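Hey team,

Filing this mostly as a record. A colleague (T.K.) asked me to run one chain through the structure pipeline before their review meeting, and I want the input and output archived in the tracker in case anyone asks later how it was produced. No errors, nothing strange. Just documentation.

Input sequence:
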Amino acid sequence: MLFNYHAIDQDGHERDGSIDALSRDSAIAALQQRSLIISSIESTEKKSLLEMDIPFFNRVANKDIVMLSRQIATLFEAQVSALRVFRLLAAEVDSKPLAQALTAVADDLQGGSSISKALAKHPRIFSTFYVNMVRAGEESGKLSETFGYLADYLDRSYEVMSKAGNALIYPIFVVFVFFAVMTLMLTLVIPKISAVLIQGGAKVPVYTRIIIDFSNFLTSYGIFILIGLIALGFYIWRLSKTSSGKLYLDSFRLTVPYVGDLYQKLYLSRIADNFSTMLISGVSVLEALDITASVVGNAVYQEILEDVASQVKGGSSISAALSRHPEIPGIMSAMVRVGEETGELGKILTTLAKFYSREVVNAVDTLVGLIEPAMIVFLGLGVGILVAAVLLPIYNLAGAM
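Output structure:
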């Protein structure tokens, strides 16, 4: 791979040139050995659309990472070298972005990099949690076991998230279609029917007048409502990008009736699963707390874990630090205390993770079970009111002729 560089030599003179190397890091190391201070270095290879830094095209499915981790663990157990493992998998995976990332990792390994450092260069594919787990495996000499733990963890996480997502697809789709059809009826059909009723001189009931007035409002001001909704969505998106806004939105999410309880169980399951997986893999308690805080996905629990890590550094036990936060259930603090006293904290957290995962699945099933009948009643009332408001005046008008 050819790289163009701009550098400064020991005498302060600027130098431009090119160097052939296996990877960018290898090129930088070679130039530094020549006592050059590098200002910029870029590959001369043109990138395709899929190779460009576009998140939509560079997304890799969670199931692909699960399968990849399983394959890496199997190949390491078979005593295949790390370089050959990543070369083989880069040629076998179906995902183009993942194949490119694995090829880059193999190039870095050939240039002398560690696996964790090579993976860390691809944060959109390999999370901080993933990279630190691999680093722990390298330090302990248990890479095959570490990738097995990662595959198990990702598999559990994928199962819970896909269960929740798939269960809510149908209700969301039906509600979306209902509102779309009602909007089209109120803006396209009702105005024409109301014109016929007014021209025919029919007596319009109060509920029909309400529907007609609402239809006129949507027809006249619908574009402003749409612009307002888009602006609101953009504002919420911008708010979620700030630390204070994310904390507010995540706090609000946890306070929504029933849904907040579901989210709480989801985050507790993620905390217990992340923490237990890292402890079992040999990661230190403080490092595990810091990494779990960074990947939990909720600003409220991130602050809690950061505070727990701070208190543990000051000499407090994990259970005592957790018990100071009302967002952490008492049963979790008590179980962690038992794990600390018996020296089986990893196993206790694994049990908690399984418990909260089951609770998430049960909560999703219950939520869907409540949504479906409520949705049927809501849709029936909406359609019934609209049809009655339109058909009854038409029927009266036809009877008067």
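Quick notes for T.K.: The beta strands are 2-8, 14-20, 37-43. The radius of gyration is 29 Å.
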